[in-house]
Amino acid sequence: MNSNRSRFLAAAASLVVVLMPLVLEPSASTAQTETGGPTTTAAPLPAVLVELFTSEGCATCPPADKLLSDLDQNQRVPGVQVIALSEHVDYWNRLGWKVPFSSAEFSQRQIAYAKALGIEDFYTPQMIVDGRTEFIGSNRANALEAIATAARSPKAYVSVAAKSSAPNSITLTVQLENIPDASRRDKAEVMLAVTESGLLSKVSRGENSGRELSHSAVTRRLVSIGAVDGKTFRAEPTVRLDPAWKVQNSGVVVFVQERTSRRVLGAASIKLTRESV
Predict the structure, then answer these.
(1) What is the tens place of the pLDDT at every residue in 56-103?
(2) Which CATH number fits domain 2-28+44-271: 3.40.50.300, 3.90.550.10, 2.60.40.10, 3.30.420.40?
(3) Rounded to whole angstroms, how far apart are CA atoms 224 and 228?
(4) Which of 56, 182, 223, 262 is surrounded by the fewest CB atoms within 10 Å?
(5) Domain ranges (residues) in the chain
(6) Which pTM value belongs to this model?
């Protein structure tokens, strides 16, 4: 895996660092009883953002892809909501297999993390938890420990819901409250990702040639929907949906993240349905 780092450092060094995400967490809420008196509801589980930088061209990536799918689908950390993003980098594509959902945008995002975390290079598979902890993406023990630790950090309340829809697009209502203070001289930004699960690829070239690979929470689109100014944030973004994506397997993730340190401050996600689009 260390050879992967040096192998692609020079090839990707020219990429420009862009995107920076933001994450929020939910807080306790209250409801009204039939008699009109308030009753405190259970606090939402703390949400932790788990990103995996991966590629179908990388022989050591399938175990990491499987781990991310397990964390996403089976929620392996008690008392924590794991929100997964699988981000397929493009710097492996030149070696024979072009991943259909890879993007230079994700390679650039990974480079930004390397700078923020003070590591010399980047590699696949690399897992990053809440923007602060990185490790080899197939290491289950490290993943579980990092997620449990991140869940104890202060989180923002993040709410996302479908407001209206049109052919191939959806308008959302996004609201954040109790956003933790950003680090000194840093700013936070709210990001929105569209993900798709249940993806299968029959790889015909590269290190995984001849294998059929499955993926969960593949990031199809990642955009900024605004900067944070204060303790609250509200927006109603309209998101384009590619007709080729399977809506029933798709979801939306909203998170808030510091631009420089990359620290995630909270996150939330919803599943899309045919009725919501």
Answers:
(1) 999 999 999 999 999 999 999 999 999 999 999 999 999 889 999 999
(2) 2.60.40.10
(3) 11
(4) 223
(5) 2-28+44-271
(6) 0.85
